[in-house]
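Hey, resending since the last one bounced:
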Amino acid sequence: MNLVEMAIADLAGAETFPLDAILTLRQKWGEARPLLLQRLGAFAAGENRSPENAEIVFFGLHLLAEKRETEALAPLLSVALEGEPLYDMIGDATGETLSAILISIYDGDPGKLKRVVEASGADPWARVAALECFAWLVACGDLPPEAGQDYLRQCFETLQPHEAHPVWYGWQGCVALLGLSELEPLVARAFRSGFVDKEALSFEDFQADLRVFRAASDRREVFEERGLKPIDDALDALAVFEEEDEEEPVKPAANPNRSIGRNDPCPCGSGKKYKKCCLAADEG
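The structure tokens again:
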């Protein structure tokens, strides 16, 4: 086993954050890249879905994002389309860093993102992340503004399910982020129909966001303030998963209440974010 293979093995089951392994893989990226893509591909193909490989893929995806490795997009989205296996693979990254990963490894084909957005059986937060990546591309000028407005308008008619679901939370957020006041009546209908969980967000909250984002001079800056930007440093991106006890290893969290994002209001009604309230108990 050479140094790179040892570093990849160290990503799984480490008792502390595998900083040395990540630094080694960065330094020897030419050797590490194909091995990390191979690990991701093995999970996507169903050849190796062990917890150990999932941890390797979790860290590996953040490095692949840092390096802008677009070959990682297709296998990642194939797992997202399956639904539950995505959470098994990357844990709470589905609600924390997946949008940034997609933005970083986007390969120029918006159709791949749309397939995830529109797939009712896909992981719910992957659908949100794909929408946010699509909106980022519009904000950055990689897709024309009319494409963003037309697609988000189309989504109102085609997205399933027609009930409260994270994808609608993501949809209204993208409408606000892009300052699309033309779509405000559709967002109002979505709220009236109960598509957006009113305990998580009210229509008045959407309107406030819309006003703020329309007034912004730099649309891209607005996205970045929400954490929607490419990953330039995998270590910085992974910091969001660090617990107060720094001795605990960073790894995909096993949260049985997975339909709730870490930054969403806690369902217990405390008014705190889920990650600051009942998340630890749910994981225990």
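The chain has a mean pLDDT of 88.

Sorry for the duplicate.
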